């Protein structure tokens, strides 16, 4: 049986004395020094992903644009693996790529209720909550004690009048006791202009619920989407987008309901699941019963969604960032002085592909700023005897690669194997299985295995129907992770790896035919 988020969350949320309860704590905020991402790029650290100076991070909290910069908070435990408790660690950025650690905004255990957990922050422009026009209001889950001594997940309100540098506790605004639901977590709140009230999506037991409020304090249950086949539901997001056709024409306006879920019933592990449908201010109605997975990899979880600042059309796209990890092996990943990282920021747009409304999931164009140069490869026809000859690129542990695959004389071979971060003992492989209409990611040989669990060892698969149309590929390689994007984000696979620092070689080969490789560009990080 898979070690699911439910068993993990139960241990954490009940504040047990086990090591698991230490995931989500922090030391005193005065010990946290603001450091830019560039100051943290030692050899064993991510080069272009958010990670803590030291200690543990997991769920990102929805970024806010305030004072000409993005403000992002993450769950944080500076004392991992010995101390327990949860903090919100604050990062800022002007480009959503390079982030500066600003220290702790909410220290651990500052109220009698204990930890603060995941939620969302909004700007209360019209002072609906009474803390002042423009105050930041954060609503998040807290473990509220009942008279009997049990703990029930409930929603707390915190507020900030210093642009999110610090928050003060307001009140418990959604008590989930006595005898409340076992799951009652991760509120995501936005202003719904059409009905003139606040709307919250909340994860409950086998259900994603909608609540409404005039003042962020009094919440009324409105509706719920019940799903019992996705394990413990977490971190919901509800947001509107234009639905485009493949030519870029707007077909309609849709709403997307997205959450963290578990795909164990279909042979998958945890990830980010979503439905496309309609929302009338009270009820979200999905177009189809079954949703889709946003990322086919094993390490894209607790995703949070936010609208780009200054967007000419706020429905054209949204941004997303996620925790790049998996509870099945999160505590077993070998790192140096830090634990956990976030994905790169993605741009999500909604497109109708063969009659199915799908989120397109691609890295931001601004990510190009972290790569120092572009090295062009030559166009080559590779076959069973001759693999791709890569340009001299310095063999670094972090880079971006872009290339296009085309069938030879209109026919694809049996398979193409692209091996990355290799040495004499290890490699990580992306395989295009043309004969089986599949793309899969193999990382069980990427380095020393942190876990023998299938969540780590199994290949990560994405169905793909190959036609004579070329396939565009983007690969982001960092010290401990790989993110793959197919056809500008129609498919994404995000995965941690354990490759040693001397594993930097590349290999591309073909079985059962030939493939044209063109437009190859590799962009290393200095």
What structural class is derived from the secondary structure elements? mainly beta
Distance between the termini: 43 Å
Query: How many strands, which pairing sense, and closed or not: the largest β-sheet?
Result: 9 strands, mixed
The number of helical runs is 2
- Give the strand tally: 35
Mean pLDDT across residues: 90
Taking all Cα atoms into account, the compactness measure Rg is 23 Å
Unreliable stretches? 1-41
Q: In percent, how helical is the residue content? A: under 10%
Please state the overall shape, judged from the principal axes of the Cα atoms. globular
| Percentage beta strand | over 45%
Characterization of the model:
By secondary structure, the chain is mostly beta strands. It has 2 helices and 35 strands. The strands form 6 sheets. Strands 14, 15, 16, 17, 18, 19, 20, 22 and 23 form a 9-stranded mixed sheet that branches. Strands 24, 25, 26, 31, 32, 33 and 35 form a 7-stranded antiparallel sheet that branches. A 6-stranded mixed sheet has the order 1-5-4-3-2-21, with no helix packed on it. The two termini are 43 Å apart. The N terminus is likely disordered.
């Amino acid at each position: 049986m898979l070690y699911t988020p439910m068993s993990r969350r139960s241990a954490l949320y009940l504040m047990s004395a086990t090591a698991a309860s230490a995931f989500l704590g922090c030391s005193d905020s005065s010990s946290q020094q603001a450091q830019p991402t560039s100051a943290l790029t030692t050899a064993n650290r991510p080069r272009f992903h958010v990670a803590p100076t030291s200690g543990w991070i997991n769920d990102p909290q929805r970024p806010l644009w305030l004072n000409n910069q993005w403000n992002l908070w993450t769950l944080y435990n500076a004392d991992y693996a010995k101390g327990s408790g949860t903090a919100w660690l604050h990062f800022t950025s002007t480009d959503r790529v390079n982030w500066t650690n600003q220290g702790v905004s909410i220290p651990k255990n500052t109220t009698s209720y204990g930890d603060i957990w995941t939620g969302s922050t909004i700007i209360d422009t019209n002072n609906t909550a009474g803390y002042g026009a423009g105050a930041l209001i954060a609503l998040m889950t807290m473990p509220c004690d009942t008279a009997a001594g049990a703990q029930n997940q409930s929603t707390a309100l915190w507020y900030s009048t210093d642009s999110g540098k610090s928050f003060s506790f307001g009140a418990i605004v959604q008590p989930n006791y006595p005898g409340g639901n076992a799951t009652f977590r991760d509120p995501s709140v936005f202003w719904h202009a059409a009905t003139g009230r606040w709307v919250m999506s909340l994860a409950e037991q086998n259900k994603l619920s909608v609540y409404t409020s005039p003042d962020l304090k009094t919440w009324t249950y409105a509706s719920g989407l019940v799903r019992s086949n996705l394990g413990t539901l977490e971190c919901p997001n509800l947001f509107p987008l234009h639905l485009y056709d493949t030519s870029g024409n707007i077909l309609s306006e849709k709403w997307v309901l997205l959450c963290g879920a578990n795909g164990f019933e279909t042979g998958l592990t945890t990830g980010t699941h979503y439905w496309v449908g309609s929302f009338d201010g009270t009820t979200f109605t999905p177009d189809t019963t079954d949703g889709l997975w946003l990322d086919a990899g094993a390490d894209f979880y607790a995703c949070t969604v936010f609208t780009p600042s200054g967007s000419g059309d706020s429905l054209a796209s949204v941004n997303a960032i996620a925790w790049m990890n998996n509870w099945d092996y999160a505590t077993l990943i070998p790192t140096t002085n830090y634990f956990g990282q976030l994905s790169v920021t993605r741009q999500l747009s909604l497109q109708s592909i063969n009659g199915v409304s799908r989120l397109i999931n691609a890295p931001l164009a601004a990510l190009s700023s972290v790569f120092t140069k572009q090295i062009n490869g030559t166009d080559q026809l590779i076959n069973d005897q001759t693999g791709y000859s890569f340009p001299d690129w310095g063999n670094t542990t972090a880079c971006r690669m872009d290339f296009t695959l085309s069938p030879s004389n209109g026919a694809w071979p049996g398979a193409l194997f692209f091996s990355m971060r290799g040495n004499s003992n290890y490699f990580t492989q992306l395989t295009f299985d043309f004969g089986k209409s599949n793309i899969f990611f193999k990382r069980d040989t990427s380095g020393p295995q942190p876990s023998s669990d299938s969540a780590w060892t199994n290949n990560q698969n994405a169905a793909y129907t190959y036609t004579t149309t070329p396939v565009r590929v983007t690969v982001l390689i960092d010290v401990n992770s790989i993110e793959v994007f197919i056809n500008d984000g129609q498919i994404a696979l995000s995965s941690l790896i354990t490759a040693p620092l001397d594993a930097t070689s590349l290999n591309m080969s073909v079985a059962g035919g030939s493939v044209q490789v063109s437009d190859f560009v590799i962009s290393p990080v200095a």
